[in-house]
UniProtKB/TrEMBL annotation:
<dbReference type="InterPro" id="IPR050483">
    <property type="entry name" value="CoA-transferase_III_domain"/>
</dbReference>
<dbReference type="InterPro" id="IPR003673">
    <property type="entry name" value="CoA-Trfase_fam_III"/>
</dbReference>
<keyword id="KW-0808">Transferase</keyword>
<dbReference type="InterPro" id="IPR044855">
    <property type="entry name" value="CoA-Trfase_III_dom3_sf"/>
</dbReference>
<feature type="region of interest" description="Disordered">
    <location>
        <begin position="1"/>
        <end position="44"/>
    </location>
</feature>
<protein>
    <submittedName>
        <fullName>CoA transferase</fullName>
    </submittedName>
</protein>
<dbReference type="InterPro" id="IPR023606">
    <property type="entry name" value="CoA-Trfase_III_dom_1_sf"/>
</dbReference>
<feature type="compositionally biased region" description="Basic and acidic residues">
    <location>
        <begin position="438"/>
        <end position="454"/>
    </location>
</feature>
<feature type="region of interest" description="Disordered">
    <location>
        <begin position="426"/>
        <end position="470"/>
    </location>
</feature>
<feature type="compositionally biased region" description="Pro residues">
    <location>
        <begin position="29"/>
        <end position="40"/>
    </location>
</feature>
<dbReference type="Pfam" id="PF02515">
    <property type="entry name" value="CoA_transf_3"/>
</dbReference>
<dbReference type="GO" id="GO:0016740">
    <property type="term" value="F:transferase activity"/>
</dbReference>
């Protein structure tokens, strides 16, 4: 049987008991494990990414690059809002933080401090990519905006994610997933699909996650250019622009043409009957698209009379005219069979079908379990927890989970020692022997070690105004 593809050091157990109380906050952190993380082996092995972002969008993008083998170093401020939350065993190690910060090392630096900011510059000198979602004003005050850095680091890919375009009237405004859903038209289509006056936001932080994926593919393209030319560049990812473009793929519809040929809105998605169907024992997405799909479904439900309906006996279904009525017909017959029986019928007749995955039961779902999408791993300080699996597979350069999400600043000493060794190598006079080299390294490391501030167990809210979006 193949080894699970998502693991940290050793293979993750396929099944393990759930923690008794994952929300307990009084449990003290465990002592870190002595087992070293595995060396990166993915397609981005050898690429270094500095993560100067917070909350979800930037950290998720950096984590994906880490899953693909990059060495990701997270610059963590003295107080980090990304670690706030109520679901945790120890303060600062929340469920959301664990899910967007694996495969990273954490370095605690206060960028408002001149010495710490210079250490950050030393780190950037070793990096291929910087990812940040700080607002441009805060970056300029720190001297860490692209204009300030590009002369010093011409190879650096500077990926800057913001809520809105920097040349727009909305530049610099705070942006959150909900406001971007509104600004991109997602709330509009939700209102039209549900036919309600006060539509809710989509119940997932879609704008954050889609923007994170946009950061990833844009960064990968810039890396190809960097490898070919040796040059870095500024990569700007405005959340609003990203989500407007994402939303319009299907919903621009008749307004694709000028003058418009029809209204906006993708009719199948806006069909108010476009929803999960009740089965005899639960819910399932049963979506007959073609006339033949409808006839086969009605026949399987024991309603041959409906299969004779002229609306399902043409060359195609007229969704705009008949979509709602046909959805009601489908929904009237799906309780005839169980979910498992519908799965068999739909597979036989190629009718689109999907059982409704209940998140509370996801870890036991055979598809999830066999794909190692929620394996249990042992965090060095937090104990057993579910690791969200890497969803892609590479035949030659497999992605992997090598490091658990770090405690605040846990790798500061290690990373600064690496920088010290590089500084010694650059400054070492010709002919310097190994003993003298080690002495220089030791002196520099000891000097820096005395300046490293201890990690705070319970970070609080930083200057929220400095963050551009989730």
């Amino acid at each position: 049987m193949p080894e699970p593809k998502n693991h940290t050091g050793a293979a993750t157990p396929r099944r393990a008991p759930e923690p008794e109380n994952p929300a307990v906050t009084a449990t003290p952190p465990r002592e870190p494990s002595a087992a070293p993380p595995r060396e990166p082996s993915g397609p981005l092995a050898g690429v270094r990414v500095v993560d100067l972002s917070t909350v979800v969008m930037g950290p998720y993008a950096a984590q994906i690059l880490g899953d693909l083998g990059a060495d990701v170093i997270r610059i963590e401020p003295p107080r980090d809002t990304a670690r706030n939350g109520t679901v945790h065993r120890t303060p600062g190690m929340t469920s959301l933080y664990l899910n967007v910060n694996r495969n990273k090392r954490s370095v605690r630096l206060d960028l408002k401090d001149d010495a710490d900011r210079e250490r950050a510059m030393d780190l950037l000198a070793t990096a291929d990519v910087l990812i940040t979602n700080m607002r441009i004003g805060a970056l300029r005050r720190l001297g860490m905006d692209h204009e300030s850095l590009r002369g010093r680091f011409p190879r650096l890919i500077y990926a800057h994610a913001q809520g809105f375009r920097p040349d727009s009237a909305r530049a610099g405004l705070a942006a959150y997933d909900e406001t971007i859903q509104a600004a991109s038209g997602l709330i509009d289509v939700a209102e039209r699909a549900a036919d309600i006056a006060r539509p809710v936001v989509l119940p997932t932080i879609l704008a954050d996650k889609v923007s994170a994926l946009t950061i990833v593919y844009s960064t990968l393209a810039a890396l190809v250019h960097q490898r070919a030319t040796g040059q870095g560049q500024l990569v700007q990812v405005p959340m609003a622009d990203t989500m407007i473009a994402f939303n319009l793929v299907e919903h621009l519809q008749g307004h694709t043409f000028e003058p418009p040929l029809a209204p906006t809105g993708y009719a199948p998605a806006l069909n108010r009957g476009h929803r999960a169907r009740p089965t005899r024992d639960g819910l399932a997405m049963i979506i007959p698209y073609s006339p033949q799909n409808h006839r086969d479904l009605f026949a399987a439900a024991g309603r041959p009379d409906l299969a004779d309906d002229p609306r399902v006996n043409g060359e195609k279904i007229n969704v705009v005219r008949d979509g709602v009525a046909l959805s009601e017909m489908v929904e009237s017959v799906t309780p005839a069979l169980t979910t498992a029986e519908w799965a068999e019928v739909c597979a036989k007749h190629s009718i689109p079908f999907g059982p409704v995955l209940r998140l509370e039961e996801a870890s036991g779902d055979p598809y999830v379990r066999e794909g190692h999408l929620m394996d249990v791993a042992e965090h060095p300080t937090e104990g057993p927890y579910r690791v969200i699996g890497v969803p892609v597979a590479f035949s030659a350069t497999p992605a992997s989970v090598r490091r658990h999400a770090p405690r605040p600043g846990q790798d500061t000493e290690e990373v600064l020692a690496e920088l010290d060794r590089r500084a010694v190598a650059r400054a070492r006079p010709e002919g310097t022997g190994p003993t003298e080299t080690r002495l220089m390294e030791t002196r520099l490391t000891e000097a820096r070690r005395t300046e490293i501030r201890p990690a705070e167990a319970c970070p609080a809210e930083p200057g929220a105004s400095e963050v551009s979006g989730h």
